[in-house]
Write a sequence for this structure.
């Protein structure tokens, strides 16, 4: 059925098929196209099973993507929590390519999306300049080829971030779509913990849970953000069944956080609670109650798990981080402005093992260890210029969210303000945990930043319009 008259909001229950000039304007035709792809998948499965899996994911994902970008992006974010499992490692890349193609070719004409993108242009421009600087660093790198390798942050991964953030910004153009993506983050985090406890793939590293994220400390940084987002979701959703599901997800996430045995996760959690006390001015009693509950839960976990308690108590050396950070600071002192080039710390750091030590964990550096600190890693490899750009993106984004949340309070939109406060708090927790990991290109973090930016931009530009839009579920 063709849609006539006024354009429909692409996030309503009906899809605005007039926005789809490349396809027939009916759901039946789109699902028929997907069915044909399914037949092709069946034939392909006999020849190339791996490729058939990718095509099958695309066939299922494409109709949703064409009809509701926000929900499709939410599915994509959910899948990203499993991207380090071998069985789904190709899926996120395929879904991401499809998402970007549809976003550019079909959806950019939506007015609210355009408003969100225009309102976020300053942090998006700084992010683009940061990535351009990372690319330029190949000119003075000792080994420019390392910039194309995966760890800790390849140029291709940075370019992926540059493509994903505008899409996430667009999905934050309404409260309903922003909440959809936020809930996907929570349920994705809980689901990857469940999969980890089920023993799927290499879900444990030295007795610590890594699940579908691949590293216990990286998982912990995401789980503390999911805890904050789940807390916000309990206030924003209305359906009792969904609220009960959120409570269950929060319990699973908290158990998963304990199973990571991550010191950085605990630091991030503590910082996040302090930020929450500052941001949630009207809910400090609830935050204090939540803090007390978390302290009790942490104490009970440490009593029940002596191994985790012993590991957390042995903070000296930080599993080699002290030696790595010492070398990183020395490298940075010699290359303060431009750094040593993207991904080149692993090459240059070996030269500094001959400087006065001693280094108890010097063998880690000789094996090519990363810095295990997002900010120090950026400083070493991209210099003061690169670190300044990265911090500017974070500060500009958080400032926009907090400012928009206060404006929404004045406009009488308590729910919208609470959503922005929740997203900002979650981001702060992950950024604090990033003092112990090199995760500058984590797409889940950047998508969360993008959603917050998008909603802040539309709320600041037109607070009165920010909520005739219904909540995700009532």
């Amino acid at each position: 059925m063709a849609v006539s008259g006024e354009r429909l909001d692409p996030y309503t229950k009906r899809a605005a098929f007039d926005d789809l000039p490349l396809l027939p304007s009916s759901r039946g035709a789109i699902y028929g196209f997907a069915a044909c792809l399914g037949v092709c998948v069946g034939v392909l499965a006999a020849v190339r099973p791996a490729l058939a899996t990718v095509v099958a994911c695309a066939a299922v994902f494409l109709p949703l993507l064409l009809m509701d970008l926000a929900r499709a992006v939410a599915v994509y974010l959910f899948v990203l929590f499993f991207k380090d499992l071998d069985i789904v490692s190709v899926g996120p890349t395929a879904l991401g390519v499809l998402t970007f193609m549809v976003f550019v070719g079909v959806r950019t004409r939506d007015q609210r999306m355009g408003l969100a993108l225009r309102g976020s242009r300053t942090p998006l421009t700084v992010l683009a300049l940061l990535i351009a600087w990372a690319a330029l660093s190949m000119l003075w790198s000792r080994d420019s080829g390392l910039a194309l390798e995966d760890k800790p942050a390849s140029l291709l991964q940075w370019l992926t971030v540059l493509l994903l953030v505008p899409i996430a910004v667009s999905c934050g153009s309404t409260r309903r779509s922003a909440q959809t993506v936020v809930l996907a983050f929570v349920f994705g985090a809980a689901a990857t913990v469940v999969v980890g406890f089920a023993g799927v793939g290499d879900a444990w590293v030295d007795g610590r849970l890594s699940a579908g994220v691949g590293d216990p400390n990286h998982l912990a940084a995401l789980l503390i953000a999911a805890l904050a987002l789940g807390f916000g979701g309990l206030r924003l959703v209305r359906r009792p069944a969904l609220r009960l599901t959120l409570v269950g997800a929060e319990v699973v996430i908290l158990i998963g956080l304990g199973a990571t045995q991550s010191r950085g996760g605990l630091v991030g959690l503590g910082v996040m609670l302090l930020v929450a006390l500052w941001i949630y001015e009207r809910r400090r009693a609830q935050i204090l109650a939540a803090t007390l509950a978390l302290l009790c839960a942490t104490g009970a976990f440490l009593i029940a798990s002596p191994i985790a308690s012993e590991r957390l108590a042995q903070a000296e050396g930080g599993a080699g981080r002290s030696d790595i950070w010492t070398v990183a600071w020395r490298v940075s002192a010699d290359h303060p402005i431009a750094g040593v080039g993207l991904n080149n710390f692993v090459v240059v750091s070996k030269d500094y093992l001959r400087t006065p030590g001693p280094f108890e964990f010097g063998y880690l550096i000789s094996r090519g260890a990363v810095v295990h600190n997002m900010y120090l890693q950026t400083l070493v490899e991209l210099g003061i210029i690169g670190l300044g750009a990265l911090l500017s993106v974070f500060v500009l984004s958080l400032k926009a969210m907090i400012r928009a949340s206060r404006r929404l309070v004045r406009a009488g939109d308590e729910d919208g303000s609470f959503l922005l406060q929740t997203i900002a708090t979650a981001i702060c927790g992950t950024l604090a945990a990033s003092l112990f990991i090199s995760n500058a290109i984590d797409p889940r973090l950047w998508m969360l930043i993008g959603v917050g930016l998008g909603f802040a931009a539309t709320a600041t530009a037109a607070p009165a319009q920010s909520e005739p839009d219904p909540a995700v579920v009532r």
User: Anything to note?
Assistant: The chain is about 65% helix and 0% strand.
